[in-house]
Amino acid sequence: MRNEVNFVNSLTNSGFQWINLINPTHQEVEAMCKEHDLEFETVITALDEEERSRVQIEDNFTMIIVDVPVSYESDTYYSTVPLGIVKTDKLLLTLCTQELSVFSKRLKTQTKSINGHIYQILYTISIQYLGYLRVIERKSSQVERALRQTPQNEDLIEMLDLQKSLVYMSSSLRSNQIVLERLVKLEKSDTPEAEMLEDVIIENKQAIDMSKIYGNILNSNLNVFETIISNNLNMVMKFLTVVSVIIAVPTVVSSFWGMNVPVPFQENQYGFLIVTIISIIITGLAGVYINKKENRRYKRK
């Protein structure tokens, strides 16, 4: 367990304590809950990677769970992890299975209320979503250019990873939006905190719109490249079929002269040469016929 002292300047005179737990054990969370009179079964759910975003109000504390974007595998794959935010009158507790860069960012404005600090964290998360989405869009454009030049399996796999990342982020953003709308109902209107929360909602909606746009573009690109690959495969198969048909012509001709019955030119000393020439002529005529047929098809198009 690690306790972070970020936002220390803002928290010094705020009258409450902020504790940030990074990948704590169950025993450490249980000890923290006992110390601050929190319900362990509720707080520990924030460490479940499949936990959905929500707002849960208990007798002596309120728990907020939101999804935060993270990157994996040298910034080639992006996903989200749940962040738990527990607040009481004198305590702000955050816990997550990973160390989040969102806590290393500066607060947008100075505020002394605990709700204000929570909304600052949520605002930073929304801004981080926008940043990751822009990175995904740039990488998608790079992969698209690479696929236009020389399609490689690695580029297609990277495109699929980006598509999967957008699916995770889009789902998490929608879940976070539900949490923000619930917080609006709980927050008093005409307060600085309410204005801060409105800013968070605006940024989160922008991130949702961006994820939809980038997702649609990425899906259309994947469909186009799948069609191109399928078309190239069809062209290769067609070429091989034509070659096999042309090669079959001399095989058929030679098979006639391989029968154990009297055949033309069997007594002629130039019989082999004559049969070879006949095979070449028939093969050439077959090739010319197939070529003319293809040219007519292209002219019709």
From TrEMBL:
Keywords attached to this entry: Membrane, Transmembrane, Transmembrane helix
Spans through the membrane: 239-258, 270-291
Alphabetized SUPFAM superfamilies for the sequence: CorA soluble domain-like, Magnesium transport protein CorA, transmembrane region
Membrane topology: Multi-pass membrane protein
Localization, UniProt: Membrane
A family per Pfam: CorA
Coiled coil: none
Family to which this protein belongs: Belongs to the CorA metal ion transporter (MIT) (TC 1.A.35) family.
Protein name listed in UniProt: Magnesium and cobalt transport protein CorA
Source organism per UniProt: Turicibacter sanguinis PC909
